[in-house]
Amino acid sequence: MSRKNLSNLYLYPDFGTDLDGYDLNTLKIVIAAAGVVILIGVMAFSDSLLAWMIPVLYSLSFICAGIFCFTNLFLCVKRGRIFCEVLPVLIACIIMLSTKLYVEATIAVLFYEAAKIFEVYSQKKEHERAESVLNILPNLSTVALPGKETRKRKPVHLHEGDVVLVRPGEIIPIDGYVIDGMTTVDYSSVTMGMTSKAAGKGSAVISGGVNRGKPVLIRATCDYNGSAAKKIFSSFSSSINRQSSWGVKSSKAYNIIYPAVIAAALVIGVVIPIFTHNWSVALKRAAAVLLCACPIGLIDILDLCVFSGVRKIFASGAVIRDGRLLDGLSRIETFVCNKTGTVTSKNYSVIEVMPAGFSSEEPCDPDDPAADELLDYAVKAESISGHPIACAIRKYCGAPDDMSVSDFNGEEIPGKGIAAVIGDLPVYCGNATLLFEHGINCTVPDTQGTAIHVAAGGRYLGYMVLSNEVRQGNFDALEKLRACGVKNFSLLSCDLRSVVRPIASSLSFSNVRSELSPEGKVSAVEYLMGTKAKTRTLAFLGNGSDELECASKADISAASDVLFNDEAWDKSDVAIFSEGLEKFPDVVSAAYSSMQISMAAVIANFASRAVLMILSMLGITSEVVVIAFLSLISAFSVFFVGKIQ
User: Fold this and answer.
1) Which of 303, 327, 522, 568 places its Cα 20 to 30 Å from the Cα of 20?
2) How far apart (Å, rounded) are the C-alpha atoms in residues 440 and 434?
3) Closest by alpha carbon to 289, among 610, 619, 629, 613?
4) Overall pTM > 0.85
5) For position 198, what pLDDT does the model report?
6) Alpha helix (H) ranges present in 439-577?
7) CA-based radius of gyration for the chain
8) pLDDT (tens digit, 9 = 90+) per residue, 411-438?
């Protein structure tokens, strides 16, 4: 990741600014030092020098001391960008030389160069941090060849179908599944959290994880460009390669300010002296005004805000697609999330089995034929589903996830359940809505949990109650969002109202919608989008591919637990590596602080220039004071942003 690729962000399209030419190579340092030595020598021995030598030596010291600025100007002109940041500085210094302010001109250019070099140093350090964050792949991986031979190969050269040997302590170089061995994979370097998962034969693994157990053989399911580590790298890189909203606003402002200030300097230094005949004073004021046109430090501060904000988001266990999303994340007014997998765990467990004809007062014996029939049809119907509820039912009945059922024909109805034909009997397994739609009456339990009803051949067989735990830390997470300005909280769920309401009440959700179909969730998000303020944003947080349509209707779509879900990863604005909503407030908090700092930097920058420009026009401040103040403000701001982010 080169510095040029990361920092090639122009403050404005017509009058661009960059950091090229301010690199600290030995030759430039020697030339600049020579200029300082010449300046000091002339000042010390001016009495013994000939009169014509003094301006020549002062000019030579200025040219040598300003070698970084002249190099930058040359590079800008070479690219066809004459009106660059350094131009007004050099013009102001040349005016100062023409009015015999030799020492002031050299000091001014040295102040400016010092500030720009500090910017380059800050950018370089930030990019080094970014590279260290993204260093999650090994340099070489071990590919297993037919027989027992192995060969070293770079991860970039791995392809789908390759078999990779990962020894204990090594980083998994490519996404795939285990074909031999059993181990524990530590994903903390990828998720920025303590996440470890057991991996045995057939288990999916992703690149960037560290093998903490025994050696395993992994068959790649993608090439390098499709791996999780590469996606993280690409998302991180692209997100810091964008200007924030404040950068765009500054660009538009400087498109007006830059030529306006230059025009003001021309009026002060050329037009007014025609009538006043006081050229010396007018030129000094014009030089000071010109220096106010230079946006020194502002672009770097805004860049650093984006860089550090994106890096802080990654450190919290997430990535954003675009640095411009920082603004939208900082202006969230409405937060919408799904219940299952976000507020509650995705892992369900069966807590009650109630065949038809029995009640909680007269419970059924687990070995009763009615219970066996209920469970038998339920597990057969759910054999085609990968939903967490289906997995829980299969686990409760001791059935494998890859079970097959003969004489079976069925389909999964999103938000309702399974409609199937087993043998010659129509079977329905799902919520009460599914059974009512097919003319089958069912018992609605008053217990806490998700009820799954079963009917076969038009006969109601009973229901099962499943529950999933509410995640720890939800309340604190929502309080963090409130501290960032989020006002409205909405919880959407397909579960019963009696299940959703107590959870929503305990977490102070302002809007609760239960018993929703997938289409109902989409409609709910569209309604909330229509009721929010136009200047504010709505964020939707989900955890699965079935919620992507809801997320697409929101201003900002976020998905949790994306590492093993390529579709959610590709279509989400904010990709969160871990489950639940605990990490999303950290993302919003990082964006909020970055935008607050950007706003303060822009306001302070423009305000200080306006004050300095007025003082310069009135002749109250000098050119050196202007450039020194701007340089110090720039250096302090860069240092401040780097420390607090």
Assistant:
1) 327
2) 9
3) 613
4) no
5) 85
6) 474-483, 497-506, 518-531, 548-552, 566-571
7) 33
8) 888 778 899 998 888 999 998 888 998 8
